[in-house]
Every structure is written in structure tokens, then in C-alpha cells.
Amino acid sequence: MVAAPSHRATQDTGWPHRWLSGHGQVLVVLGAIVALFVVVSFVNQRFLSPANLTTIFSGNAYIAVAAIGMTMVIITGHIDVSVGALIGVLATIAGTLAVAGWPLWMVWLAPLVVGVLVNTLAGALVAYAGIPSIVLTLGFLSILKGGLIVVTGGDWISDLPRGFFLAQMKLFGLPVPMLTALVLTLAVAWWMAHFRFGRAIYAVGSNPEAARAIGISVERTVVGVFALHGLFAGIAAVLFATQLTIIQSTVPPNLELMIITACVIGGVSILGGVGTVIGAALATILFATITSAMIFTNVSAYWLRAVIGGLILITVLADVARRRRQA
Amino acid sequence: MKSTFYVTALAALVAGSAAMAQSAWTGGDDLPTNPLACDGTPAATAALAYDGGSPTNAPDRAGKPITVVDVPKLVGIGYCNATSKGIADAAAEMGNMTATTDGPTEANIDDQITILDNYITKGVDGILFAANDPVAIAPVLKKALEAGINVVGYDANSDPGARQWFVNQAQFNGIAKSLIDNLVAEIGADGSFAIVTSTFTTPNQARWISEMSAYSALCYPDLKWLETVEAQEDNILSFNQANTLITKYGDEMKGIVGMTSVATPASADAVTQSGNCGKVAVVGLATPNAMRPYVQADCVKSVVLWNPVDLGYAAAYVLRAAADGTLQPGATTVAAGKLGELSIINGSEVLLGSPFVFSKENVDQFDF
Amino acid sequence: MTATLFSRRLLSHEAMLALLLALALFTLSRLSDSFLSSANLLNQVRLMAEIGLIALAMTLVIVTGGIDLSVGSITGLSAILLGVLWSKLGIPLPMAAVLAIAGGMVAGLANGLIITRFGVPPLIATLATMAFYRGLAEGLSQGRSVRGYPESFYVLGQGDVLGVPTQVLILLVAAILVGIALQMTAFGRTVLAIGANETAARFSSLPVDRVKLIVYGFSGLMAGLAGVLLVSRVTTTRSDMGMGWELDAITAVVLGGASIFGGRGTVLGTVLALALIQCLKNGLSLAGVKADGTIVLIGLFLIAAVLLGNLMDRIAAR
Q: In a 3-state reduction of DSSP, which class is residue C238?
């Protein structure tokens, strides 16, 4: 039986080849995006206009950034259902500090720090206290969601200072959210494939015992992954908080499900050990493309979620079919 | 290759959905509409018989201190904070009412019902509510009435038999008229506009949209409604949807109407950030605090609302009057503290007044 | 030898839950006079019945090592089916209710097929169907609610039978049946075996796929029943019914001592956990804690309880 290319020894084969054959799901998602673009631009050419492309690529960028962290968590075989609530909390922290007059660079940095701290605690509880991640993050979800209302009293934050709105700025001609998502995704993808900690993540995910046997500390890897996840949640929160003039004190509904679904569609395996952040980022773009396409093609809002659900099902089945062929 | 098959299946699904486009969704409901006259003559309100419920064996609460719970649609929304503030202000003014606000963290029915049920068990004297669903909330409210609790609704009604009185911020058709009139003032009687709303299961928004289409068909037949998009209570989604609308229609769309206090500021943000300030009008329901930057930048000319603080304030006073027994079925007016006498219409609805329009001249006077 | 150790460990978890429940009942009754009345407690069972039924079925699912995230959506879908079948197609209400519940079972079986026939991991499969079934509910309902059911229908959700709320009886019967099935039948032993080691179970020629199909179908069935009960309780249908219920059910099952990896779990544990959570929600509210504060406390409690359970496992293992 021919060994699948991904089983070949090391990165000497050139990581594009190994990557592509082991990550065909990414191609499926990419194909779906291209197909949608082609079909919808026949209906209405403005779908391809720079403004709409900005909405698609930049509008959901914060989800793509959060998905980077979540991908790593899922690869190690864990999950985090509290990330939506965490982003809401971190965004409120940023807004509160901004209104209180803190210097902007600290305002933008604070959510990252708090995100890392909160999720390091989560990771430690998962790795060392043996609490299953779904249970722990369910508990955190309640604590963060309720806590946000308790602390803010439900008030929205307005009167944010000028200059706070990082997500509305442009850098090198590209909107900051788009640039951030792009740079971070590529950087982390490359890092995970080439650096020791990055590859330890995959090892821990596919076979923790084997990883332990070759000297990788499973616990430290898990805590590190959760900490990184908190970092990316913080960055996502900053993008989320600085896009609009007011910050809501409610958590965006279903945000964690969107992030997890993006990771899953992007080819991350819940069984651990396989996946890439690029897939998750592309899946986020796919969602944004679908949402935009639904408006451009006048699909009745009543069937919108059924269509999205159907698309997710098709992509999942396609992934399974692809894996079966490879096995 | 299997992948190509799945990708084509995907594309077919999307194309197929495009074919489903005929059932254009307006966002309105199917209930009968009652548009106001175009020139502003108030509709003749027929004096209807009282159709509210009444508590069974309510104890004599006249003049005595009472505990009241306020259950809004959800907590964490600026609008609901404002109504709660009004209730708290009224309670402080009266001196003999203790009001607590306790609402669900998400706008769903079962959490709201559970909260109400708990307070019935605990034993409160009065309930103030804004319903997430008019029918679903009825059984638990009836249970409250049977327990002798005074029940008054505000903002979002329930079935009339499940509560004693309902404080209506403004009539549905009045809100619709105000929104459309303000929209036409900015984009002209033959302009095109789109609507951004929350979801199609939110009763108030659906009512307003139905009334809006009835009123505009009557008074501005050349006004072109383009489409309605839903954006839940997610402000970034509202922002993205508004942007998509702006891109899709380009110059054709002259205005966006936001139906919730989340959708309107997000739409204003979309218009401002895409550089369309002045080219695309934004009219809608929102709180002044959220809209102040746009109103002051002349991007948004008018924000239609009523004063939610006044709404809560009035509701508290109506509850007090009902508990005291000074407000009986069949009354035509009720005294509501500093708001004066409010009229009662449709049998058991207390009308706050006409919609209030916030504009550059007065937006700074409010803090909610 | 290992069996008694195993069952001793299990027993200690239920015992701990029972102790916590007693403690909670005592403390909460001190904090509020209205808590410990039979009217209130029976009412609480009424309020938790829908999630309770779903959690019973979820116990079986989680014991096999799987998970079902689509139960909330199936609840909404069957509620909509009930409304649409009765009002649009004129089917008599009892028949419509049966069909709605059957619809839930079909949805669950579809989940099971995707998991067994296509080999999709349960988390992913039910994540996908969660979105799809909710979408179906929204599309079928076209955003309209169906109301105006005959009074006789409300006996299910609001009425009493033999002096206790109808839901209490339904939940009791369901709990006993599922408990017997899990602990005392070959089917139940297969469920536990699948969760403990699926490959070994397959090699022992246990009907792994068939049992999984039954388990997911049952999960859909319970969600369908929950949907019908909810409609009867609130007298209307909405396409957003049941949102978030999957997490509540999973919380109850895990708190009840089931291992999320499968192979371990009891119905008694789930029932105790359900009672505990409902007591906390109700008691805290009666004691004056608001809804937002209550969910914070429940989250803390969940983590603390799992930590405690882990600690006791480690002690019992020595």
C-alpha cells in the first residue's frame, strides 16, 4: 500500500507538498470560496468591488484571529467554548480603560495580557487538575458571561477617545484587521510547522503517550497552547472593540460556535493531531463570503441558516470522503 | 474527483438558493395594519372595553410600600438599561416602591419565564415586564395574577388578558409614520431604502415594519423599499450587513432604516466608515448616547425614539396606581408623576405619547 | 475485583452529589422561606423537565464516548413541526404531536447515520446538524408562530396528573426506563463497552453501529418530546426554542459523574446533577441573587464540583 505523502519523514520534501497533500480540506474550502465568488459575481458585479472585498476579508477578521488560537487548542485534543464570552470581557476592558484615559498602547495591550492570564489558568486546570476542557470551559463561559453583566451593569461604552479605533485604520494600504489576520495566520502556520513547540502541539494531539516518551511535556504544551489561545483572543477582542463607536456589554451570540465551526471546516480534526490555521482562516472567509452572497443573491432570510448548515454538512462529508480515500 | 463533485454541489446549492429568492422577506408580520393619515391627523381611537386581566384577591396595597420586579427582554442592552433607570427614578421619587431589575442574559423566552416564576414564588407585590414573546409569557403572567400580584407591561406587550395594563411607548403606526416621514425628509418621496432589523422572530420590529410598508404604500407610493436584512443583536454583524447593502446597491440606495438600538448605530458606523456620510441617510430607532457622534457630525439627521427613561418611569407609576386601586378598568387617563396625565387607549393600553425625534439641537440633553 | 472498585468509585460520586444536594437544599432553605415548599419544588421539576429528558438521553450518548450538540435545534425543529402540521396541514393535534416527536427521532437517526455510516466524529457531525436543523426550523416556520391550541393540550405542560405536575411523571418514568436500560440490560452493557473501548467492543462482535444508531435516535426522540412539552407549557411555537439547551444537558451529565471520554456514567448521577443545578438556580434567585450573578455561581460550582469529584477519584484509587 502506498504510504500517504504526509507520512514521509521530514520537512526535506519541501513543506508545500507535504502540506498540500495532508491538508486537502483547505483546498475544498478554497474551492468553495472561488466557486461562490464566480457564481455571485455573475448575479451582481458589485460583489467583487473593493468595498465588498473589504467587508468580506476585514469584517470577520477578528473571528479568523480567534480561530488561530482555537485551532491550536483543538489540535491538542481540547476545546474551548468560553472564547466568545472572553472576547466580550476583554473588549469591555479595553473600552473601559480607554474611557478612563489610559494611554492607547496600554489600552490595546491590556486585553492581550488579561486574555493570556485567564486562559493560562484554564489551561493549568485542564492539564494539571484533570478537568476535561469542555467542562472547564463550560464553567468559564458562565462565569465570564454573567460576570460581564454583573460588573458593567449592562451599560454600553460610548464616548471612546479618538485614536482608539485601531480596526478602522489602515496600514500599508490594507485595513488593520485584514492585515493582522493575514500576517498572524501565515506566521503561526509557518511557526507550527517548523518550530519545536509548534510541532509539539501536533505530537501531543495525535498521541500524548508517544509525545511524553520522546520528552515532550504534555502538560506544559497544553498550558502553553491555552495561553497562546488567550493571546489571540485578546487580539481578536481589540479588533472587535475598535471597529465600532460603541462597545456592547453583551457577548456576541454564538461567537464560540462560529469559531469552532470555522476550525472544523478548515480541516482541524477533533481527534487531534491534524489541522492548520490556514484552513480555519479560509473557513472564516468562507462564512463571510456566504453571508455576503446571501444578500447579493436575495436568498430569503428564512432559509439562510439552513443553507449555511447544509454547506457545513457538505464540507464535512467531503472531508470524510477525502480522508477515506487517503487511508 | 470527489472534491470537484462536492464543490459543484456547493455551487449548485447556492445557485438553488438564489432561485428561492422569490419569497422576498420584508421582515414584517402578517397581522392587519392600520396606517395613520398622511397629513398627521390623529387616528380616531375608538374607546374599547377594558381587555386586561385582573389579579385574584390582591391584598390592599393602597399607600403601603411594595416590592416590584422589573423583567426586561434582556440585560446588557442600552435601551433596557434606560427603561430600568426610569423605573428606578420613579421608585425613588415615590418613596414607597422598591424596584429590582432582573432580566435574562439572552433574549429568549424560557429564561424570562423562569425568572418571573421565581419571583412569583418569592412573593413580590408587582411585576413590570417587557415580553420576548407575547404568547409564551402569558401562562406565567396569568399565574402571577392568580397569586394576587399586580402585573403591568411596557415596551413589548403580552396577550391582553395576561396583564392589567400595558404602557405603550407609541403606537405601532405612529412609530412607522415617524420613521417613514423622517426618511422621506432626507431621501425624497421617490428614494430607495433598505432595512436592517434584528431577527424575524422579534414581535415589535415585525409590527413596525408591517406598519411602515402600509403607511408608505398609502402616502408615498413612489418610495422604493429594496430589502430587509437581519443582524440579530450583534453589532459587528449589523455593521457588516449594512456595508454589504451599501456595496450591493451603490448609488441606488439612499437610506438605511435601523430597527433596533443595535442596528442603527452600526449602520451609521457603516455609512461613516465607507465615506458615505451625507450620501446615504440613516434613520432609525436608537438611544441618543449611541448616536451622538453621528448626529453631531451631521451624518445622521434624526433619531426616532421615545424616551425609554420616561417609559420606565410611566410604567412604574401605572403599577403603583393599579396596586393602590386608583386605576380601575374603564379609566381613560392615568396620572404618571411628572409626565402628567397619560391617555388610555385600546381598552388597557396607556400611551406614553408620540415618538420623540432626537436631532442635533437636542441630542446633548439626554444621557441614555 | 476491579469491578467492585469501579462501582465503589462510581457510588462515591453519586454519594457526593447526594450530599451536595442535601447541603444545597438545607442552605437555600435557610436563605429563603419560599424555597422548601412542595409547591415550589414540584414547580421546579416542571421547569427543568425538558432539559431533564434531553440530559437522560445525553447520558447514553456521552457514555458511548460521543456527544450530541444538535439537541437544542431538534427541540426547535419538532416544536415547529408540531405547529406547522397542526395549523397548516390540519392534522389532528395528538397525531401532529406524535409526528413531531417522530420527526425528532428521525433527525437523531440521521445524526447516528452520519456518525456510523460516514465515520464523522460526533462533535463535528452534530455541530453541522445543529446549524442545519435550526435552519430547517426557521425555514419551515417562515418566522411565524403558531398559537391557539386547545385547552386540553396544555395538560402536558401546565397541568397536573394525580396531583403532581405532568412533567414530573413523564420525567420519572423516563428516568426509570433509561436507568434500567443502562444498568441492567445487554443494551446498556454494550453502551458502556463502546465508551470504554470501541475497538474492543467491535472485536467482541457487539452490535456497535446499531447501538450507536439507537442512542442518537433516542437523543432525537427525547429532544422532540421536550419540544412538544415546551410548546404545551408556553402555548406557542418559535423557531428559536431550545437554543443553548445542549450545553445545559451536557453540564448536567458531566456533573453527574459521566466521563466525557465515555465508558462511565449513571442515570442516577445525571438526575442528581439536574436536581442540584435546578435547586441552585431557583434557590439563589429566591435568595435575591439576580440572573447574571446566578450563572456566575453555577459556573464556579461546576468547576468546583468536578475538581472535588476528581480528588475523590484519586483518593478512592489509592
A: coil
